[in-house]
Fold:
Amino acid sequence: MFLNELLGENARIKILEELLTYSDSFLTADEISRMVDISSKTVHIHMNQLEEIGMVEVKKKEI
Structure:
């Protein structure tokens, strides 16, 4: 599949699908983790990689 070649792992594709589904919402890594059934740490890793290639914008949650 083209997306697998472009984006690599299936986890990254699942994350992007959720982000597109909820594009009008702010989602935390924990929320995404529960949605796609992968660890929060893995979500963070993939989000950082997606941010590096310009596919997403990661914002830090203000306390």
Q: What stands out?
A: The helical segments are 2-7, 10-21, 29-36, 40-52. Residues 40-52 form the longest helix (13 residues). The two ends are 40 Å apart (CA to CA). DSSP finds four helices and no strands in the chain.
